[in-house]
Amino acid sequence: MADSKAKILVVFYSRDGSVEALAKAVGEGAREAGAEMRLRRVPDLVSPTVMANVPGWEERSKRMLAEYGAPTPADAEWADGIIFGTPTRFGNTSAELKAFIDSLGGLWFQGKLNGKAAGVITSTGGPHGGNETTLLSLYIPMAHLGFIIVPNGYTHAKLFEGHGTPYGSSSTSGQNSARPTADELEVAKHQGARVTQVAAALKAAGR
Asked: Regarding the domain delimited by 2-204, which CATH topology (the fold level of the hierarchy) does it fall under?
């Protein structure tokens, strides 16, 4: 029955497409592991005037919002597991994703996020641009909200080769907004399956 499936929400912010690619790979892994899946992109917070300073920003934003839709607290309540995705912003999460997380206060107060599985993904411009600090910074609100954090650990061979991190999947886009490599996408796909498996087990146990 459809209701026996784990329900997975991948909610992300992406400006240039790197985090979007990781999020899609996570979603693919979740589906292959049997999940019912929703992929959502949080809206931009800046004005069109600011977006116009970066070629293609507004166009990409409109495309992603049209393709995925914006997340709502109802999506978070629906899900058995959530993967949050963000680019790094000075070694921390983006304001756009943080705004969505902050909107979950009502669900937090009601205890409706307690026991849901959760993971994180990120992308940054440089190899030491804050991938790990950004992933870890998201662990803090996830703990407050009552999620059961599911790290990658070293549960895939590609992680031993330096693709992604034990905290969550990641990529390095460089100055040309390069898309994640095939190896990085493979780790993200594995992460989607891993979070799905944990979410399904928690659901079956009646968390």
From this structure: Rossmann fold (3.40.50)
